[in-house]
Amino acid sequence: MARLADYFVLVAFGPHPRGSGEGQGQILQRFPEKDWEDNPFPQGIELFCQPSGWQLCPERSPPTFFVAVLTDINSERHYCACLTFWEPAEPTQEAASAEDAADGEEELEDGGRMRLSPSAPAPASQLFAPKTLVLVSRLDHTEVFRNSLGLIYTVHVEGLDVSLESVIGNLLTCTIPLAGGSQRTISLGAGDRQVIQTPLTDSLPVSCCSVALLFRQLGITNVLCLFCAALTEHKILFLSRSYQRLADACRGLLALLFPLRYSFTYVPILPAQLLEVLSTPTPFVIGVHAAFQAETQELLDVIIADLDGGTVTVPECVHIPPLPEPLQSQTHSVLSTVLDPELELADLAFPPPTVPASSLKMQDKELRAVFLRLFAQLLQGYRWCLHIVRIHPEPVIRFHKAAFLGQRGLVEDDFLMKVLEGMAFAGFVSERGVPYRATDLFDELVAHEVARMRADESHPQRVLRHVKELAEQLYKNENPYPAVAMHKVQRPAEASHLRRAPRPFPRLDEGTVQWIVDQAMAKMQGAPPAVRAERRSTVPSGPPMTAILERSSGLHANSARRLEVVRNCISYVFEGKMLEAKKLLPAVLRALKGRAARRCLTQELHLHVQQNRAVLDHQQFDFVVRMMNCCLQDCTSADEHGIAAALLPLVTAFCRKLSPGVTQFAYSCVQEHVVWSTPQFWEAMFYGDVQTHVRALYLEPPEDRPPTQVGEALAQEEPPSALDVASEQRRLWPTLSRAKQQELVQKEESTVFSQAIHYASRMSYLLLPLDASKSRLLRERAGLGDPESASNSLVTNSMAGSVAESYDTESGFEDAETSDVAGAVVRFINRFVDKVCTESGVTSDHLKGLHVMVPDIVQMHIETLEAVHRESRRLPPIQKQPKLLRPRLLPGEECVLDGLRVYLLPDGREEGAGGSAGGPALLPAEGAVFLTTYRVIFTGMPTDPLVGEQVVVRAFPVAALTKEKRISVQTHVDQFLQDGLQLRACTFQLLRMAFDEEVGSEGAELFRKQLHRLRYPPDIKGTFAFASGATHTPGRPGRAAKDKGPSLRTLSRNLMKNAKRTIGRQHITRKKYSPPSWEHRGQPPAEDQEDEIAVSEEAEPSTLTPSAGLKPADRLTLSSLVERACCRDYQRLGLGTLGSSLSRAKSEPFRVSPVNRMYAICRSYPGLLIVPQSVQDNALQRVSRCYRQNRFPVVCWRSGRSKAVLLRSGGLHGKGVVGLFKAQNAPSPGQSQADSSSLEQEKYLQAVVSAMPRYADASGRNTLSGFSSAHLGSHGKWGSIRVSGRSGGPGVGVDVGSRLAGRDVLGPPQPNGAPPDSGFLRPQRAALYIIGDKAQLKGVRPDPLQQWELVPIEVFEARQVKASFKKLLKACVPGCPAAEPGPASYLRSLEDSEWLTQIHKLLQVSVLVVELLDSGSSVLVSLEDGWDITTQVVSLVQLLSDPFYRTLEGFRLLVEKEWLSFGHRFSHRGAHMLAGQSSGVVPIFLQFLDCVHQVHLQFPMEFEFSQFYLKFLSYHHASRRFRTFLLDSDYERIELGLLYEEKGERRGQQACRSVWEHVDRLSKKTPVFYNYMYAPEDAEVLRPYSNVSNLKVWDFYTEETLAEGPPYDWELARGPPEPPEEERPDSSAPQSRRRVVWPCYDSRPRAQPDAISRLLEELQRLETELGRPPERWKDTWDRVKAAQRLEGRPDGRGTPGSLLASTVPHHRRSLGVYLQEGPAGSTLSLSLDSDQSGGSSASSSRQAARRSTSALYSQFQTAESENRSYEGTLYKKGAFMKPWKARWFVLDKTKHQLRYYDHRVDTECKGVIDLAEVEAVAPGAPTMGAPKTVGEKAFFDVKTTRRVYNFCAQDAASAQQWVDRIQGCLSDA
């Protein structure tokens, strides 16, 4: 029983003590005056009576009533019912508020009363003061309080003949039961009667209609939002103008939270004076009057619910997690059905008669029932996750959150996670976790109705029925009896408040009230206590939990077959069938992604432990550890599925014997997982184990237990759960004797204590690393564990991905960085012990003992581990596949992402997967993908165990990536889907890979992002060629000492940004320009300032014409340009030099013009250009305007025989020559700008024609334009060059021939599409042919008077090349196997790509131009912008026409001149930077190289370079390894300081930045770039067949070597594999040199080199064995060829080589013997040193002449050859303690020094002995370590002023010769 009311208080208005206008509440009287012992008087009631402040009112207001709630320090709620009425203010009160009235500004905010106004009915002077009757109670009976206070007010107002004291006394002495459902009738003695209804159970909240009202005010979505916010501990503020509404809303919200109790600040009505409470950091539910809405605006993290406006405002910074789906949507739909029953019927054609809506009270219960069901669904099975830690003296219960979330499948769910971590849930566990207590509706629901709720989910009607049933029970709880007796309470008359009250509320007599209270108290003491027996019982646990949403994705659906595989593999391991187990292991590791398989593994292993089979041999141990690691790597730190928990006992059981007395347990190999360093995991494990032991304590049937109970225990099918045991023990507890109780408490405490000791050891096992000297943190950072700190056989694959987070973040190891691992582990264990022992009630003595024990346990374990570590390092490594194979990296190449484990899957190329060609199935392979700054590399081994230990490598440069596609992969084991990635590169590589589970989606995403970042750097500085460990970064400023000279910044200011201003400017004075010093070349340019150089229109002819008076500074600027490839080639072709052009030698028809040296006219042209001698430089500016990109026609080559020239330019603008040809009339005098430039252009072409030697032809009109109009239509025969589609047959030759030679075809065309013999052209021809785009020259009618002729042809565009290349890539490296096997589909897709058709067109146009040039006509190629197809054509023409370009030196020159200097846009076409990402790769250069390859195939003896050279360039032009093929023009290269960087001082041993430099160095080592069949005919013009049928698909597109990846990075290629040591025990035994060579895997040329490479290699080996420095291969080869020629002369019969060279007729030569040339023509595996010499020593005269040009490349010429007086090999003794070494010595009389080199061909001098310092040369004696085979007389010493040098010659004679030579030098001096 409880008191209905604890206190009655009368509060009145009083003046404010500080004299402010507002008043304050004063307690006039309170009853009883003494506090109750069990319930002290609550403070601050005055504030809550008038929450808006105490104010006087100008008129009478009706009485108001509301209930405020106060919470005391013990979290007890006190309900303060306040009834307020107004009485005329007394004079003192009025005086207090006088100043307010004077101001007239005070707004009276209470309730909604008006401001003071003249229209008030009362006299102006009359004010009314509020007075409040307050009832304080711990019970919440709002209506009873309203009636009781109303009765007191009525007695006062109506003046009833009843004593107020007796009414109040009766009220204070009224007691009612708390619960039980009884009705209690009370009367306060004023003729009244009230019936109080108690709820059936007090655990269910009483809500009346508050929930229904809340939904009406806010709506479903808003209430759900508030519900989630309250559960996830957010701040909630209600606003309303009604206090009672605020109280109801707060009560309704709390009723929804049942069975959780809200445990934070709860103030339904907050007084205005306490508004600062809203800034509290803790969560709250508070109601505030709407008048204070403005004050709530600044609150940033408070959710505001406006009850009157029906809105809920959630601040931006607050995230309220929603309910997990599908509960959110289900709850929403059920709520909408409850609130609007007609919703379901609204669409029916014949709606049934309307259903009567539920009453508000019933609707309230239905809404609550929905939320009760929701909680039952959310918390279903929660009792299965309770851990009973202690039963006596009080139950201690812990909840295993992780297991609950894991089993519900809601680990990722934000909402449930927050709810479980919240205070409300903690209270729920401590209150409802108790196993033996009274149960209520929620317990029944969560235990018995779950199955029903799951079944009802898809049937809305059944759900509604269930909701109504629950609502009935809730309603019945509040209203158990339907017929409630009627209340009878007097009420005041209508408008009684307006009547003038007879008197103010009287002062009551305290004595009377106190007497009544005392009387009642005495009576209560006499009566027996009415104790209601609480019905306690065992709380039902209900069915085990299930996932809220069955998320069995197809990925991990574990079929019985998978579990079978796991079981089989384990049984094979334990039966010792290792080969069988090895085959199953990949499938097992994949199956272990599924939870069921992991559980199955732990169960199986557990069985083997029980059968005493825990001691394993090394291989078994290794398998078991790998499977355990695989299980653990997917465990999160919380271990929600209990896998780590199940493995914990197993890792301390399985072991292997390392040596007598030393055993290694499995825990030392599975430490690399984050779960072990998570305190929450250990706590959950500890509590779980304690529960097991405590349960066992009570399950042993003790002797004194009655036999009936034993019988019952046996009768149960399954043993009782821990909760059942605890429930039974709690039931028996009161019946036990005191001694027995003490004994049980002690036993439990000892159980907990012993478990704590056990766990301290367990934790030390898993936290201390095997090698305690190393911090484990460092090992984890390395990713794989370093091999020294784990046993050799334990670097297993699954350790790689599970890098645990560092201790200091995860578990509070502050100093895990230091080596004090032991200290950190001790601290970690001590924290754990403190926490669990305090919570479990372990005595302080025991706890102290534990703290002493822990360091000893850790120390002992460290000592044990040292022995284990020592022994484990002695184990022989077990070779097994999953070890990650690290790739070899280039110098400067760095790993960006280390070894992500992947499977390389077979693609459409079936060779690697066995395929129709047979061979082993190398793919799929298992390994890792590495991302470096330069490449993407896969290394691994085939998954097929029968293939063997073959390493599979696939790699490509990051820069070559063209397409990246996500794929879903079905791997070969168990049809199991996985995320994958397909990467395709323009170097014809394809990586199709599936990421291993351990990588995870985050790892895969990181790989993609990093790959994208490296593929598309924001600028060129981000590419590998720049970033690779450069010793000198172009971006850094030069040395400070040299700042006086102008920097490149100045150069670019003066040079670069002037094109636009130059073109449009009229009169400018020229500024002096001084060249930058070399040190400053590397600085980036400033692009913001323009230069001062420009072109004047007519001002002075010499402005841009370099005359003899050119300033010296300008000449300096040009000196660098002279050394470029262009200039050297112009010189070779006799087109003049800059010097001769400046002196204007008029005899020369062409000159070198420096007009573009500032890159002002055309940025994409080189600085020096060849133009007709007669054209002034200032005219070129105007000519350039007629051409696209200002690329006006310039000469790029001249035929040595016919003197015809080849010109190139961009296409014409619309108003250029075309407009000129279209205009029939002469230009009018009033010329426009366009006309003048057309005129300039015409003059320019005329000048070109005039410069040709054969122009003085008599019949100038006999040009092509003189033929009949049949040949001249816009569809003339030139169009046939296009050869549309694939139809081009032999007819092409006829068309071209007849077109050029009139109607008579002079020679029959050859059948392969080659042109007729060279005599087919007539002498009548134009002097200049302009080859232009047909579309551009449409409708042009050439003037017969002109000496040039337009040849319109149709060419393909860059976008067509791009599309064709895409198709070619897909054909040659298909992503998936073809639908129909066999070559047909490949050939079809190859044909569809039209790649060969484009090659055919290029060759055809080039051969045509070659014919024209050969016949003496000049040709201008003017296609597109002049930098793509134009470049291809002019390069091919020069290659076909000029044998020089078919040498290594010449080809380099050709590429440098036509492609680099003339501005082919390598970076743009290769999409090198982020800006070019959208344009994609357009391989124009690759197409050119393919054309060269086709010509090479047809003329194999005409090229000095091999096919491998072309492949090498194809690979590296896309790889960005070298800087050669970066950027779009010389202008850009100068801007970045690239062009002249080699002019700077020599940098030491650094990676080549130029591909040419690299080729030179490589050529000295190996003949890989050399073509042995090179035997050119002088001045041979090549005319290749161009029909598609004659073209071959380049093997660069189709071949691959899986043994070592692409062979084009020579440093990474390995030599022939050495046979293993054990296979060659004795060199005398006969050995087989045979080995298997697999197609697609091995490099055939490397495994079986051609005969010449083999002989050269053998020679080199023999020379090395003899101790001589090996001769360079080229010298040997040249010597052999020279000797062969000499042998062949006397008898006139040449050897086969010379026959090939001279006597084979032309057509045989062209189809000549094809030498099978592979990617690496030799097996020489020499390391590249920094040998950078410019030329070789002896050579044939032609080679020597060619190499002399290479002197221009080298940065300084080697002049040593002139000064070598005497040279040879000597052994030299190093300095003190150094060995003897053979060196190549050179005696130089001129420089008076003795130099020595590493070997004969070395150009870099290793040391110099100055002969001026030599004092004596004398015979010497052998010292220690001298060569053994040499006589004593071969030694001699050279004594200098610094030291004595010891030398040894090959014999005594050569020693004497050296001594004589040196002494001769000394005497000469």
Number of separate strands: 42
Rounded radius of gyration (Å): 50 Å
Strand arrangement in the largest pleated sheet: 25-24-23-22-28-27-26
Globally, the shape reads elongated
Global structural class: alpha+beta
- Which stretches are poorly predicted, pLDDT < 50 over at least 5 residues? 99-123, 549-557, 702-716, 775-819, 972-976, 1030-1114, 1215-1232, 1256-1312, 1314-1323, 1542-1549, 1615-1630, 1692-1762
Helix content: 25-40%
Estimated share of beta-strand residues: 5-15%
Mean pLDDT: 76
Provide a count of the helices.
58
Distance separating the two termini: 131 Å
Largest sheet: 7 strands, antiparallel
Structure write-up:
The radius of gyration is 50 Å and the shape is elongated. 37% of the residues lie in helices and 13% in strands. A hairpin with a 2-residue loop joins β20 (655-659) and β21. The relative contact order is 0.04. The strands form eleven sheets. It has a seven-stranded antiparallel beta sheet. It has a seven-stranded antiparallel beta sheet with strand order 39-38-37-36-42-41-40, with helices on one face. It starts with a strand and ends with a helix. The chain is built from 58 helices and 42 strands. α26 (738-767) packs antiparallel against α29 and α44 (1395-1414) crosses α48. It has 1869 residues and is α+β, with helices and mostly antiparallel strands.
